[in-house]
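Long-time lurker. I teach an intro course on protein structure, and each term I like to show students one example going from raw sequence to a predicted 3D structure in token notation. This year I'd like something fresh instead of my usual example. Would anyone be willing to generate the tokens for the chain below so I can use it in lecture? Attribution to the forum is fine with me.
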Amino acid sequence: MIFAPVPEAFRLLIIDDNSDIHNDFRTILTEEEETNSFLDAMEMELFGQAPADSCHKNKYELDFALQGKEGLSKVQASLLEGNPYAVAFVDMRMPPGWDGLETIERIWQVDPHIQIVICSAYSDYSWQEIIGRLGRTDSLLILKKPFDAAEVAQLASALSEKWKLAKQASLKMVQLEGMAQERTQELAYANEALQHEMKERKSAEAALRHAQKMEAIGTLAGGIAHDFNNILFGAMGFAEIALGDAEPGTRIHKSLDQIINAHKRAARLVDQILSFSRQIEHEPQVIHIHPVIKEALSLLRSTIPSTVEIRKEIDVRCGAVMADPTKIYQVIMNLCTNASQAMEDAVGVLEVTLKEVDVLEHEAAFMQVPAGKYARLTVKDNGMGMDQETQNRVFEPYFTTKLDGHGNGLGLATTYGIVKYHNGAIQVDSRQGQGTTFSVFFPIVKEQARVNLDDLVVAAPASGDKHILVVDDEKPIILMEEATLVQWGYEVTSTTDSQEALRLFMENPHTYDAVVTDQTMPKLTGIDLAREMLKVRPDLPIILVTGYSAAVTRQKAPDLGLAAYLEKPVETMVLAQAVDQAISSRNAMQTGAAA
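-- Reply from a regular --
Happy to contribute to a lecture. Here you go:
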């Protein structure tokens, strides 16, 4: 029970079937002169000092009842009013109604905090019986009739103060409990925040480890790409030279053609590895998806278990989309790899479908994309499937159902991000024991897809008698580039030492019409070499041919004064064309300046 504020006057209830007793209590507790004089005299006798000013009048508010039932009603009413009684004086014998013991029992049922004084000349119950029936004595005293006025006054005063202190203690306990609950709630919030922060910290640490791992992979990939592209460049270049000497239609001509195509595929694979490790980025362009799917599935076939059959239904007439080809490749690889892992150690079927579809208004609203035509890529497996809870979380970063060491929970999250980046949508449909289907939607664009550069017929460069300085620290590449340019009528001076190249140039700067240089070389890099040469001859055409470099990109090349930027492995004809175009552009500028 929560007490109301302490009133100025204590409420006392006298329950006795004798109205004369009521008057006695009224006289003792509300008449000032007699009671005061008696109490003051007692205080003087006990403490030896004059009493402080005191007034018993109005300290008590008295109510009376002739029967127990009437007394109970008054107690109930006082509680409803919010002004309860502090003390009740109850007679033991009150015929014809309840006796005092029953009255006390009923009163304590509605107000267990009221102090009780039993008033009786004779009791029908022993003290043990009273205790046994009421079960408590902490709020119970006995006053025998006839009672002494001082004793009544003392009991009224002491029990009222006790009731008041109990009320104040209860209020204090309520306040303390409230403070404890508030503090407990604060601690709960703090603990929740701490748990959230720890979870975020773990996620951040995992992301940092992943970023560091990807950075290490990227660094490794960059180094491998440079060396591997140098190998491919030399091998492909010599194959192209040999192809030019071979009789068309012969077996050796066809074999050399297949070798060159294989080198081109290897070069694209290196480019994809660099893209996945974020060493290079590609701008979105208008493309058809089906060649990317074909390339990805060709690579996947050698990486997924032979027990998994790959079925594909690709509509080559599907419209073009605006996309980064390497990102689309990554989506296909992630979904197909995830599907193959769902069928691990079992005979399974991986189905890949590409189809142009119309997404209607109600479907678009659900997918949160505009209505219209979409290229729908579907990857389906007949693996173990997923329950609904897993499907709800499948695109969350770092969420995985795989065993430790078999996944980092980023594959599908990355796929989701790529799809959203391309203004598309992705859906998952799965049943446990029945497999999973991922459907990816990319919006169709009206523009025509760009022509594949590999399919272009490149015009032959014009033969010329110009002098070209070729620099590369790889001897096979020097021999191949020299043979290529000589084949097209150029005079070539070559060296594998970049400092030697700078010395040759400084001896006679105007001897050379163009320079073809590698980027990553000991002593002087290609950029450093170009910078020194351009100080002497600002009009000198310099073509940078690099296996891989983080220091220079195709976008940065013009600002560095380079006439052309080529990535190894480059076709021999493309190399010859770049040299021819660089010299022609230089000549055109000089002619325009002279005019």
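Some talking points for your students: Residues 149-245 form the longest helix (97 residues). The first strand starts at residue 10 and ends at 15.
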